[in-house]
Each structure stands twice: as structure tokens, then as C-alpha cells.
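[User] Could I get a sequence and C-alpha cells?

[Assistant]
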Amino acid sequence: MAPRTLPPTACLRAFEVATRHATFTSAAEELSVTQSAVSHQIRHLEAIWDVTLFERGNSLRLTASGAALAPLVREFFVKLDATLGSLHERQGRVPLKVSTTYSFSLKWLLPRLPTLAAQHPDLLVTLDPSDKVIHFTRDDPEVAIRLGTGHYPSLYSEFLFRETIFPVASPALLERFGHPRTPAELLRYPLLTRDGSDLVPKWERWFQHVGVQVSALKESVRFADTNMTIEAALLGQGVAMARSGHVERELSEGQLVRLFDVPFVSPIGYYFVCPQGVETKPHIQTFRAWLRNEAVSAAQRYG
């Protein structure tokens, strides 16, 4: 099928505006043109498409054809404006794609990005949340932030910070069960546990750290994701073992309560990782410096 003749953009804009007005006169006022100009553009569009778009009378009313075409034309202008705005915003900015774990991206990095944008408006960061191993091929992100022991052979790595680990519960749960006076009392509470590797904070290690012998945990629900565990704690379903960087907002707003001020530093930490030599690129040096400052502030806050 041969493509139809594409109408001038002015005709499409006149049609889109007219669909939101009762008369061509009021549509013309929005477009800052004459009523006859709008009428002419609509008739030209009808001739090109060989359809009637409006039923003329005391007020404009779309025909069935006009009603079918109106949302398509409106979507075209909305997407065009959004795309042009994005392109204009990106002009002069240096893109940087950062791979992070989903939970770290959501809970720690994302809330801090407005500070980065204010300090370095020329840097355009895109987050790529994933727990998968990346090989820094052409289509992969330039840099990554990973949780681990710092062993990344053949890559440049830079230590950022470690978190503290502690139990958290919602005020609603504490109202039902009471506030535990000793760590051992937590054994009678519903505990939210996580599946996963040794990188995941485990109740058994925390109880061992505080000197409580554990034979069996009173598990409530077992989760495969950190964010789900925290969300369940917020809903009052049990006590979660949390990393400090994942509950900053919830603690500050009183949605969660930290139980026991017992220092227990995570045995693993967060590291900035990238291929050797990439760390010297100016825009990546800028990002690294900002990240280090945020990491120092976080480490001081976590104690």
C-alpha cells in the first residue's frame, strides 16, 4: 500500500488545538492566528486525508473519523515535545551509565542524585540496576558499584564504605509485641529472613555477635530480596535484619525503629569498580570524587 501524503505540521497542530475548543475562533486565539487560518488548515487536512474531521455548527464536534485520529495526533505532539525537551536537556552534558544492585540503587544512590545534579549539572547519570555480573563490554555500563570483599581481578576497584547491621521493626509491631529489652527476647518475635549468599545479613550471625545461642529461629516469612524484607517490616509482619544504608529514610521518618544499639559492622563493603584506565576519565573522576564524599558522610553517620 502506497504511503499517504504527510500533512504539514501546522495543519496537524491546528487540528490538535481545535479538538480542545468549542469553536475555531477560540482555537485561533490559542494559536495566535486568525479564525480563517485555522479553518483553512483544517479543510486542507481533510482534503489530504479525504475524511471529515468536524461536524460544523454552533460548536465544534468531532466526527467518528476525527475522534479516531485526535488521540494519535495529540500523542504525536506530546512525544515530540518530550523528546525535544530531553535532547535539549542533554546537550552539553556528559552521559555516565552506572551499574548498581537494585536495592542499593533504590535505597542509597537514588535519594542522593539530586545533590550530584546540583553540584555537577554537566554530568548526566543513568542507573542500570542489576545483580548480574557485568563484563564491561561495549554495551555495558562504564562503571559499577558492587557489594563484596573488594576482590575484582584485572579491574580498578576503590573501597567506598561499610554498613552497620541491626534489627528493625515497625512501631505497630512493637505495640503488639512490646519493645524487647534484651536481644534474646527477639527469639519470640516473628523474624523476617532472607535467602541468599553469605553477602546477605543473617540473623544467626547477629545473634552470635551479641552472645545469644540459637537453636531454631521463629521465622515469619523468608524473602529473596532485601527491599521485600524491609517492606514486610514496614507492614508490621515481623522484625527484619537491615543494613544501615537501606533504611535511612524509614528510620529518620519513624516508620521503622532500630532495636539495640549494638555495633555490628558488615564484613563486606561497597566498592566502585571499572576497567583499568577508565577511572582517569574526567567525568568519571568527577563522579568518583562525589561518591567518595557521600560515602564518607554515610560511614560517619553509620558509626
Remarks:
- The first helix runs from residue 9 to 18.
